[in-house]
Amino acid sequence: METTTPLLLVGVLLLAAPLLGSSAAVGAEEDGFSVEFIHRDSVKSPFHDPALTPHGRALAAARRSAARAAELHHLLARRSSGAPSPGTGAGVVAEVVSRQFEYLMAIEVGTPPVRVLAIADTGSDLVWVKCKGKDNDNNSNSTFFSDSDDGEDSPPPSDEDSTPPPSDDSGDAPAPSADDTPAPPSVYFVPSASSTYGRVGCDTKACRALSSAASCSPDGSCEYLYSYGDGSRASGQLSTETFTFSTIADSSKTNSHGNNNNNSSSHGQVEIAKLDFGCSTTTTGTFRADGLVGLGGGPVSLASQLGATTSLGRKFSYCLAPYANTNASSALNFGSRAVVSEPGAASTPLITGEVETYYTIALDSINVAGTKRPTTAAQAQPKYYKSKARGSGSSSSNSIIVDSGTTLTYLDSALLTPLVKDLTRRIKLPRAESPEKILDLCYDISGVRGEDALGIPDVTLVLGGGGEVTLKPDNTFVVVQEGVLCLALVATSERQSVSILGNIAQQNLHVGYDLEKGTVTFAAADCAKSHPYGEADV
């Protein structure tokens, strides 16, 4: 893949194995199941900072987005050039995308179960949790996902992290530069305390799937070393265990108020036995949770394992509630619940990418239909911006990755520049100075009341195969300072050439991935109602 090729990343995955119906999960294989998808700024997240304003949270998310996008660029550039991943003195490592996470999910590991709040990462495949036992008590004081280095050198900060935050005259507290929120207390899984724990041997499909990340211990068990884009690392034993997921009600069976009409099925548990996962006995660097659930497209992901071992199939979906509503939860769905069937659903084929972890699709063009006009007025003809070809012999499309872990949307400048020119011509608001260097187009909305008064047109993405996804103003603009609204679409660059469809653009869209059919499907939805307890009790 050319390193200058724009990509659009849709990351979503988990690791799993045989599904065992518990008494509370009757019919799970027929109906599928859903788990709560928690934004890091939600009141349900341990990283929620009540002192931070919505504008401060938006700026912090933009900075995390820049750091994550840069890591994706460097990773794909190395893969494309054939350059090896940086070594650590312990052999070859598998480098994946790192700590710039946006969503969390709760999992319960072992028998009896230990509850872990893990990062849901669309940029990697392996599911792993922090482990502690007799053989690694020396790590009992490690603070995985904190600034402690467990006795090893911490990686230097990235350029994005070291850039001081710009001044903010709005009166808001300064936004964190990238990830300054204090880490919650650590939770460790102790293998010896579980009756269902087992290790995975070297000569297994799961171990081979880890490729260069895996090595064989003297006793024949499979070990791994994962290195992340910011230099953080996790290593340990590839293992099997029973994972339990707290399932939530099927949103299609809820009433207009989001209440489930069948109280007996409003919640329950789904057990997945013999799930392949990493039992990480050593973690270093900057990660800030108790584990990581890989949501990529590789063979050890949850969707892949569910498809191989149950009747749920290799499909999943999510519906992202607007993150500005910190009381709302989103949903992550598997099996039949992952089918996107809302009116106007548009599907597009997956494209084989440089790294199978990422979900790559084609973006053919962008349509700006124009602002709303009275029905008596002449309709403005949609204006299309055709995306450039990837290279000789390719179709006239950008290959793009859709990623729930990146906040902003990144587009090639050849596609974005004419779009911005058209938006500035159509939007009649006064311009404002941007409080963040990566956000170029900002408006003063201090005197505007109501979204319709903004006069921001819808933007439609025309995908490979002809499907269209309409982005509302809330998908393309974000308030980053009191009275200041900025475009959440930014241009790729030489330092960051990967095109990414970020999570702001995906808010209030039901996004489904069918790995068997090789498609991604989008449909407009009210995602705050996709979780039956969408509003937290605060």
UniProtKB/TrEMBL annotation:
GO terms for cellular component: extracellular region. Residues 139-190, 377-396 are annotated as: Disordered. Keywords: Aspartyl protease, Glycoprotein, Hydrolase, Protease, Secreted, Signal. Residues 1-24 form the signal peptide. Residues 172-181 have a biased composition (Low complexity). It is found in: Secreted. InterPro entries: Aspartic_peptidase_A1, Aspartic_peptidase_AS, Pepsin-like_plant, PEPTIDASE_A1, Peptidase_aspartic_dom_sf, Plant_Aspart_Prot_A1, TAXi_C, TAXi_N. The active site is at 121, 403. Residues 103-523 form the Peptidase A1 domain. It comes from the Eukaryota. Residues 147-162 have a biased composition (Acidic residues). One of its GO terms (molecular function) is aspartic-type endopeptidase activity. GO terms for biological process: proteolysis. Belongs to the peptidase A1 family. This is Peptidase A1 domain-containing protein.
